[in-house]
Structure formats: structure tokens, C-alpha cells
Specification:
The chain is 29% helix and 28% strand. By secondary structure, the chain is an alpha/beta fold.
């Protein structure tokens, strides 16, 4: 490839659905869930194929990010306004750092991947497709179940083989993106051949910035080109890159991934990953657990002992001076707890 490949991991969020382990001063991506190294460090390990690597984060996390991944450059976004402004800002910053325009591989910093080799190979292939098509490329995860917690990517027709090696050459144009459907709709999407949207993308900066000009993020692009990123962030509201750009753009493609992927966004997902790794029926993220007639519980209690008696499918998280108890099926709603705590200024 004539373009340098640059990996950019997004690490500016907090991960509020993993409260109380994740807090405003201890974001999810810097935690060591389902492993010894932090989620961010393991994410950067998977991008070793790239010519250069960067992490985009908020100013409060910059020093900690550097400590976790000293091999990566650190970019600080002017404000936290979701993935749309963040990725446009990263494209603008990284384009100006290279004599030859790079291809960016952009990915979250807080996901689980069972097969790092397959994951890295698909990201490399996504970069190739972005260079070949001058388009926006999404990596779509082959779903294992109809989950209402994920967004979906619907390909237009069948995948096209490009190149001699079909395993590395498959991609298709995108017909539509669907955000977090109900369970019945998710089942229909899976049966129709849709992919989970992992939030993993590849594009050249010019391709993304051109698409952003025809989106709600146009004021940000104008301000960036004028050298005033603070004004640009003030001019836009928080919005995901999917809503702002991917759902509106043309020349958008999907390439499939099968690598044992999961989004570690909730305690239920953390428990699911531990089950995959062959842990006992009660999944102890941290702590000493005694379980009597209790199964399917996710327990995170560093330096604590937790006894479970005749309860099933609970989240029990005890971190510092905070305790959370909830049914696993309500794991998406933990954010509501955080919202209430923020209202009371005790998050």
C-alpha cells in the first residue's frame, strides 16, 4: 500500500455502565477486566501492524493513557462530544502529520477479542479496502445471537471477493445501519445476514472530512480548516459517527470479522466473556466469592468477600465505598444510576 496505516484508538469515555468500577477518575478502558493488562493496552497490542499508533482521549486521562501505552502518541480532543466529532478531529490532526495521506484504522479501546491475529488481519484488510475504494469502511462482526444491545450493518447484496485470497478480500456496499433494535427486529436482522456494528472503521482523512462536510458536523470541519478546533466543538452537539456521517454517506462498505468479539460495555458482557473463558458458573471479576445455590452471578469486589445464597443472575459490584446490586438483564440500565448520582453530584 502506498499510504501509511495509522491506528487510532478512542479512549475518552468513562464507561458508565460498568459503575462502580468505572468512575470519572477511573475510566473503563484503563481497567483490567477479564485479564491482567488494561483494555486499552490490549487494544494497542492488536494494532501492532500499523505504521504508527495514536490514542485520542480527554485531557484528564492523557497522562494515564501515556502510562498504559507509552508506545502510542496521545491526541487530546477539545471536548467530549461522542464519536462523530472525535473521529473528525482525529482525521484532521493526523492528516497534517504525514507527507503522504495515511489510511486511518479507528477503533474503540474497550472491547474483548478472542482471536487477536484474525482481528488484526481484518483491520489490515479494511485499510486496504479504504485505500482501494476511497470510501468509508466499517468492520462488521458476524453475530452469534440476536442482541438488542448492538447496532447492525445491513450489506447490500452478497459480499464481493476482491483479490486472490477470498478470506482476506470480502466486502460489500452498505444498504443501511440500524441502531439497537428490539429483540424481534434483531433476530430478523441476523437471519437476513446483517452484522454487528463494532464501531471499528477505516478511511483516509480526506474521505471522512469530505463526508463530514455533508453532515451535522460541517461547522466543525469549517472551524478545523480555519485552525480553530475549540470553536468547532462549541458549534456542534454530541453525536455518534454512525448518525452524523455513516448513515448519510455514499461509498460506504462493510467487511466481515469473526474473531470472538464482544463489547465490554456492561457487567453482563463481562460475565459472558468470563463464561467463554471457562470460568465457574458464578463469574468473579475480582474478589473472594462464596456461592451456595447461586448461579449466573457476576461479582466484582476487589479486596472484598461476597457470599451469595440462593440468588441467580445478579450483578454484585463492590468497589471502594460503592455497592451496586442489579439483575444481569438490567445491565444496560446501570447508566441510569450514574445519571442520578451525577444529578446529586456524588458520581
Amino acid at each position: 500500500m502506498d499510504h501509511p496505516v495509522v491506528a487510532c484508538a478512542l479512549a475518552g469515555g468513562i464507561g458508565s455502565r460498568l459503575y462502580p468500577a468505572s468512575r470519572s477518575d477511573r475510566p473503563k478502558q484503563l481497567l483490567s477486566l477479564a485479564g491482567e493488562r488494561s483494555l486499552l493496552a490490549r487494544t494497542m497490542d492488536r494494532t501492532a501492524f500499523a505504521d504508527e499508533r495514536y490514542v485520542l482521549t480527554r485531557e484528564a486521562f492523557a497522562d494515564a493513557v501515556h502510562d498504559h501505552v507509552p508506545e502510542a502518541g496521545v491526541l487530546v480532543e477539545p471536548a467530549g462530544k461522542d464519536t462523530g466529532p472525535a473521529l473528525v478531529y482525529a482525521a484532521w490532526r493526523l492528516r497534517e502529520r504525514f507527507d503522504t495521506e495515511p489510511v486511518l484504522v479507528c477503533l474503540p479501546s474497550d472491547h474483548y477479542v478472542a482471536d487477536d491475529v484474525a482481528f488484526a488481519a481484518r483491520l489490515e484488510r479494511a485499510a486496504d479496502i479504504a485505500a482501494e475504494t476511497d470510501g468509508l469502511v466499517a468492520v462488521g462482526v458476524e453475530p452469534t445471537r440476536p442482541s438488542p444491545g448492538y447496532g447492525y450493518i445491513v450489506p447490500a447484496g452478497g459480499l464481493e471477493a476482491n483479490g486472490d485470497d477470498e478470506s482476506n478480500g470480502d466486502y460489500a456496499a452498505v444498504a443501511q445501519f440500524t441502531e439497537k433494535p428490539n429483540r424481534d427486529a434483531a433476530r430478523n436482522l441476523v437471519e437476513a445476514g446483517a452484522y454487528w456494528n463494532a464501531g471499528v472503521f477505516a478511511w483516509t482523512p480526506s474521505a471522512l472530512l469530505a463526508a463530514a462536510r455533508d453532515s451535522p458536523l460541517a461547522p466543525l470541519v469549517d472551524a478545523l480548516e480555519a485552525g480553530d478546533p475549540d470553536r468547532g466543538f462549541d458549534a456542534v452537539t454530541p453525536i455518534s459517527v454512525d448518525y452524523a456521517i455513516m448513515e448519510r454517506a455514499v461509498n460506504v462498505f462493510v467487511t466481515p470479522l469473526a474473531a470472538g468479539w464482544d463489547d465490554l460495555g456492561t457487567w453482563d458482557a463481562v460475565g459472558r466473556v468470563l463464561e467463554t473463558d471457562g470460568e465457574p458458573a458464578n463469574d468473579a471479576v475480582a474478589g473472594d466469592v462464596l456461592a451456595i445455590d447461586a448461579t449466573g452471578n457476576v461479582v466484582a469486589a476487589p479486596e472484598k468477600h461476597v457470599s451469595l445464597l440462593a440468588v441467580d443472575d445478579l450483578i454484585v459490584a463492590v468497589v471502594d465505598d460503592r455497592l451496586l446490586v442489579a439483575p444481569r438483564e438490567a445491565s444496560q440500565r446501570v447508566r441510569e444510576v450514574v445519571d442520578r448520582l451525577r444529578e446529586r453530584d456524588i458520581f
